[in-house]
Backbone:
């Protein structure tokens, strides 16, 4: 390469080359986790993320995966640096790990690990992996304790600690963690994979430093953040200035069934955006609370998506965005509020912010997607005393886009990920599925139709099990836009013999016996535009494909009314 | 090596006459023909006939026979690479089909794995669903996770779906039931019932196409197979009819995605295995050339106008993967491993609104093409940067038949890239090429990384029109010390097909803890698979001495989802052999992923066999040596930040005795090579060229 950096200005060619190299490092870390992890949560659902930070802890590159993780990792790292382990205390060969929502994390199953990368004694970068672990002890398998009123009931809490010191794994600390979780072998396998990936990333970064020089690498990292900031500001400038209000709702908190309001005031002014969540419900007694890491992450996701920025995703994108959330509210909970189901609130923060954007740029924003992660875990107790923890989740339909129908049963919004193949679940756990498919008439009616929700139902085949569900949007249905109807809500039921029992969205320890059938129905997405404007050929096709039934026809053609607002 | 197995006269490859390879591409149908008595090979090109590819096929054969003076009766063997299946998928020119699933799981095909690719987009990406919901029919039945029958196939339900299929009027049906990979009884029963009731229906069953766990991938592959059946069967029928009426009786073999050849009869029922038939020709050629040059670790790269394909040769063999993707559709059949990125000669360079330089993946394609092609292109491309810097000769391009407009390229690149970035045209052009080099190197690095391999252990082999100008710089970037340029890159793929062997892939999934007890299980399984493999090859009329069997085992730590493929030695395993295998696995896991876990148990998931039926090596034919030392022309080339006078050689004047020292440029008929400073290039007796980094002792 003949070109070289001139003072005060980064060579644009090197910048492009190194930008790709940073992303490639994050991808290599991602491949390592994917290929070496043990749980279906990580290797099939892909519930993990990887990223690269500069030496000061600013996020420069991400492997595209889970928006909820990616946009919170920097907050966690900065919290650790500021309040727990200052960077001066970090050394070559260390790995720092935490799962504490009150140290910058989100909820206890997510363990976030960081590794500083040193070259010639200088800290040139930090690598990061975040993995959702299958179990963290506490009152419910999988960590979703619907009846928790404080975080101590949700599981094992690890403050930011050095699990590896100067290259030496702290075996006593690892043993302590493993002693506190329900499936230590799976935890250990996933944890080792998470730590190994940090080193794979570090190797890549050391190679980049050798190739381009430490100073160049650091200068390019800083320039990439500035570039993303400029791109974000340019995109915001293109949005109409104004103050926009919106709200969305979360079903009850597990103890109190009343809906909780999330209120958004979005201010677009010049090249900056402010999101104020004042007016949001007070923090809940049950576990649906969000800490600022979740809240900011949701606002960042929604804003980047709404602004339509085609830049390299990194923390430069966050600079023009300010987030205010009242302390002690649902979206900025105080210690020791329980937070295991924070994702339910996180989704609705994102949908509320998107709804506010719909007032500014209606041609760009779809109706609400399903707005929930249908997380569930079963503590399986076999006759011979063996124990297994099955963790899985389901998703629903996209909201209708102004131009196209929402896809059915497709990951949307604040999270992303794969399903676990039915055959894989059945090969490992004592379950047999009875249905996995679309729920007819569940998409919101409109000129464009919302995507359909999914039914995922199985028969339980072990002696005894305890079912925990972290669900939502049973009552608070995904909103329609511009005259479109909301999507249908979710449902959970268990059938034993001839009796079907409806269960609440937040369910803990529901006892399963051999032969019980658990049925989960996820919400459809909202519709867009008046249903009466639905083209006849589209309606006819939906009817032939069984997406709309004879009963639903009136509603989808605009002749009937969709049953009730939330 | 399998390829050197001797041949008996009874085999399809006799010792005299001619063997032909026909490779049908988008524009040209390439034919490569070898005289089995002399080893001499010649090539022939004719236009592809998209309305009926079999016409082009016969045109090529009869044209070559006339040109080179042999009778059709002298042809001993026809090897055929075809993109017929690929084209049908890319254009979605597929027949309407139906899908039969276990009742309650009709939507598995559409749900897929349900993750989206662009995480921030609010407009949904389109999902390619080959069978609409109205033609996905559920049948009441259920197999359990151990292959046990949980619910018998319901006769009333079977009658109902039979009527539904008949009413829908489709000609093809895919059957994919849950857990059918463990017990195919219900799939077979449904197939037999449908055959009896609807005899013209073409049917494909998941337990035959892809007998492995994970229902979506198996279903998707089976659906694709069913839909390709009429496409490929019609083609084969036409082709055979044309061959028969021309009196061409030589046996015909089709090249599959795994690089091995198969009979038309086998291809007709498993057409999905032909989807990577086209690209696998180049990989085969790379494999054979590596073998001829005595190299066993090669990265083969094919750079064209819009894309860059990366394939691997390891231990002398092409890397084959068990699952891939074609145009967004998952496909689970063995195929040559190939990573494709959008970087080619036509990749467009631009500066975005925030001042960042971008190169590709947008491409100017063949039309309008690069600015310098004078076909109306206005966006500067990789090729334009090469012309501006003198790497690509404007006058001598295609031997002077197609002069390039360097001035127009310069103006466009100045306006669109150099001025916005505040750089000179030369610095901007060199910068663009630097970005391209980094992208190409990145693709290679990621391909190797996924297998835990180090580029420095590999040689680079560059084929395809646009690669020669970049290969040495890419090798430098990756620390690779050797770059190989084949003699005749434009017919390289056909040349590879010519040398294809028959290959049968067999796999048996038996999740088994790898301990001393496992030896017996593996040995039994292996004996059974060996018998099956030998029988299949005997059915292909191959004598035992032409047959070789290669076993490998997919190993993982208990609970992992992915395995490492470990080759097995010949002969039965004993306890010591198991211990050696486990140790090798730990080591490879450590090398690839920076850790091993000796506390954890290792398990075998799948035992694999590749049965090779050698159709006979083809002796390479030495080139006639050019007399004397070559005398180059000189031209101004911008290299390393300055203009320099660089020698330009014509490939056909190079001699074995006179190596070329970089910097230098070597021009071939269809491509140009750049040798940078610090590299030398030597000509092999075969006419292939090998560039080495100076100081490389290897």
Residues:
């Amino acid at each position: 390469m003949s070109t070289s950096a001139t003072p005060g200005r980064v060579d644009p060619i090197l910048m492009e080359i190194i930008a790709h190299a940073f992303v490639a490092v994050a991808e290599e870390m991602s491949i390592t986790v994917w290929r070496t992890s043990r749980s279906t949560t990580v290797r099939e659902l892909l519930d993990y993320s990887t990223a690269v930070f500069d030496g000061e802890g600013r996020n420069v590159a991400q492997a595209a995966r889970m928006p909820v993780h990616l946009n919170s990792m920097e907050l966690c790292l900065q919290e650790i640096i500021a309040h727990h382990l200052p960077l001066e205390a970090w050394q070559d060969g260390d790995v720092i790990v935490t799962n504490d929502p009150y140290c910058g994390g989100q909820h206890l199953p997510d363990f976030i690990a960081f590794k500083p990368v040193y070259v010639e004694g200088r800290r040139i970068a930090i690598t990061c992996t975040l993995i959702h672990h299958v179990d963290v002890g506490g009152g419910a398998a999988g960590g979703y304790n619907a009846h928790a009123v404080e975080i101590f009931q949700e599981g094992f809490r690890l403050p930011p600690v050095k699990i590896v010191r100067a290259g030496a794994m702290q075996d006593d600390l690892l043993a302590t963690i493993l002693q506190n979780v329900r499936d230590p072998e799976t935890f250990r396998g996933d944890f080792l994979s998470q730590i190994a990936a940090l080193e794979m990333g570090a190797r890549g970064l050391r190679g980049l430093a050798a190739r381009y020089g430490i100073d160049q690498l650091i200068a390019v990292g800083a320039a990439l953040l500035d570039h993303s900031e400029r791109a974000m500001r340019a995109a915001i400038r293109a949005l109409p200035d104004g103050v926009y209000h919106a709200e969305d709702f979360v079903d009850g908190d597990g103890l109190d069934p009343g809906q909780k309001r999330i209120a958004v005031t979005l201010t677009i002014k010049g090249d900056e955006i402010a999101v104020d969540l004042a007016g949001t419900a007070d923090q809940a007694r049950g576990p649906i609370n969000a800490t600022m890491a979740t809240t900011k992450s949701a606002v960042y996701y929604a804003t980047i998506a709404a602004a339509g920025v085609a830049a390299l995703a990194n923390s430069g994108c966050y600079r023009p965005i300010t987030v205010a959330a009242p302390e002690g509210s649902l979206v900025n909970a105080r210690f020791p509020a329980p937070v295991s189901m924070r994702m339910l609130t996180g989704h609705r923060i994102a949908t509320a912010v998107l709804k506010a954007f719909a007032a500014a740029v209606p041609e760009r924003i779809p109706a609400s997607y399903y707005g929930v992660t249908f997380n569930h875990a079963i503590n399986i107790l076999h006759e011979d005393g063996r124990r297994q923890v099955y963790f899985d989740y389901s998703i629903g339909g996209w909201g209708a886009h102004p131009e196209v129908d929402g896809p059915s049963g497709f990951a949307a919004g604040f999270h992303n990920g794969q399903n676990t193949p039915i055959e894989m679940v059945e090969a490992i756990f004592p379950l047999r599925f009875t249905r996995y498919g679309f729920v007819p008439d569940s998409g919101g009616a409109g000129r464009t139709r919302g995507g359909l929700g999914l039914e995922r139902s199985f028969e339980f085949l072990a002696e005894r099990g305890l079912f925990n569900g972290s669900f939502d949007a049973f009552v608070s249905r995904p909103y329609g836009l511009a005259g479109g109807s909301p999507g249908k809500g979710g449902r959970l039921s268990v059938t034993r013999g001839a009796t079907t029992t409806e269960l609440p969205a937040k369910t803990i320890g529901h006892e399963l016996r051999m032969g019980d059938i658990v049925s989960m129905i996820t919400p459809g997405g909202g519709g867009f535009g008046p249903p009466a404007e639905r083209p006849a050929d589209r309606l006819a096709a939906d009817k032939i494909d069984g997406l709309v039934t004879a009963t639903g026809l009136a509603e989808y053609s605009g002749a009937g009314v969709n049953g009730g607002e939330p | 090596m399998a390829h050197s197995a001797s041949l008996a006269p009874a085999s399809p490859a006799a010792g005299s006459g001619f063997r032909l390879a026909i490779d049908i591409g988008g524009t040209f149908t390439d034919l490569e023909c070898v005289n089995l008595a002399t080893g001499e090979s010649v090539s022939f090109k004719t236009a592809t006939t998209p309305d009926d590819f079999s016409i082009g096929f016969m045109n090529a054969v009869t044209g070559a026979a006339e040109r080179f003076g042999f009778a059709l009766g002298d042809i001993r063997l026809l090897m055929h690479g075809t993109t017929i299946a690929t084209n049908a998928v890319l254009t979605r020119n597929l027949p309407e089909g139906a899908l039969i699933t276990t009742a309650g799981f009709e939507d598995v095909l559409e749900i897929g794995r349900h993750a989206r690719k662009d995480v921030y987009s609010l407009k949904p990406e389109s999902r390619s669903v080959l069978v609409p919901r109205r033609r996905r029919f559920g049948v009441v039945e259920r197999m359990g996770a151990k292959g046990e029958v949980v619910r018998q196939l319901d006769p009333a339900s079977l009658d109902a779906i039979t009527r539904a299929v008949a009413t829908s009027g489709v000609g093809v049906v895919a059957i994919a039931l849950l857990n059918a990979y463990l017990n195919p009884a219900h799939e077979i029963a449904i197939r037999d019932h449908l055959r009896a009731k609807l005899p013209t229906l073409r049917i494909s069953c998941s337990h035959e196409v892809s007998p492995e766990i994970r229902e979506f991938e198996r279903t998707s592959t089976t659906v694709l197979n069913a839909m390709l059946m009429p496409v490929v069967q019609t083609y084969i029928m036409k082709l055979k009819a044309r061959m028969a009426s021309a009196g061409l009786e030589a046996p015909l073999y089709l090249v599959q995605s795994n690089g091995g050849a198969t009979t038309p009869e086998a291809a007709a029922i498993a057409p999905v295995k032909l989807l990577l038939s086209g690209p696998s020709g180049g990989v085969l050629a790379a494999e054979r050339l590596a073998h001829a040059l005595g190299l066993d670790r090669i990265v083969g790269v094919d750079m064209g106008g819009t894309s860059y394909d990366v394939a691997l040769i390891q231990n002398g063999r092409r890397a084959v993967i068990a699952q891939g993707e074609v145009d967004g559709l998952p496909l689970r059949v063995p195929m040559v491993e190939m990573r494709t990125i959008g970087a080619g000669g036509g990749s467009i360079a631009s500066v975005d609104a925030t001042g960042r330089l971008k190169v590709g993946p947008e491409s100017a394609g063949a039309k309008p093409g690069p600015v310098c092609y004078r076909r109306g292109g206005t966006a500067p491309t990789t090729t334009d940067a090469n012309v501006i810097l003198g790497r690509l000769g404007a006058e001598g391009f295609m031997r002077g038949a197609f002069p390039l407009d360097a001035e127009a390229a310069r103006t466009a690149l100045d306006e669109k890239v150099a001025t916005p970035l505040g750089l000179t045209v030369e610095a901007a052009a060199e910068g663009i090429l630097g970005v391209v080099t980094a992208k190409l190197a990145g693709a290679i690095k990621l391909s190797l990384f996924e297998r835990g391999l180090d580029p420095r252990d590999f040689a680079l082999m560059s084929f395809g029109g646009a690669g020669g100008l970049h290969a040495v710089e890419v090798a430098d970037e990756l620390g690779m010390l050797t770059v190989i340029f084949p003699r005749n890159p434009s017919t390289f793929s056909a040349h590879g097909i010519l040398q294809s062997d028959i290959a049968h892939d067999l796999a048996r999934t038996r999740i088994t803890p790898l301990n001393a007890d496992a030896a017996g299980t593996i040995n039994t399984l292996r004996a059974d698979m060996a018998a099956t493999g030998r029988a299949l090859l005997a059915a292909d009329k191959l004598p035992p001495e032409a047959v070789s069997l290669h076993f490998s085992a997919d190993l993982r730590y208990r609970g992992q989802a992915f395995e490492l493929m470990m080759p097995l030695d010949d002969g039965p395993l004993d306890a010591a052999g198991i211990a050696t295998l486990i140790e090798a696995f730990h080591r490879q896991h450590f090398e690839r992923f920076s850790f091993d876990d000796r506390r954890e148990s290792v398990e075998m998931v799948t035992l694999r066999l590749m049965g090779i039926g050698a159709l006979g090596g083809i002796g390479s034919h030495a080139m006639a040596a050019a007399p004397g030392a070559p005398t180059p022309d000189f031209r101004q080339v911008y290299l390393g930040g300055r203009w320099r006078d660089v020698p330009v050689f014509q490939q056909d004047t190079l001699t074995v005795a006179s190596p070329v020292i970089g910097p230098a440029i070597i021009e071939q008929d269809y491509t140009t090579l750049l040798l940078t400073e610090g590299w030398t290039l030597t000509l092999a007796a075969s006419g292939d060229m090998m560039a080495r980094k100076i100081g490389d002792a290897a």
Q: What stands out?
A: Chain B touches chain A through 71 residues (CB under 8 Å). The CA atoms of residues 250 and 614 of chain B lie 17 Å apart. The mean pLDDT of chain B is 87.
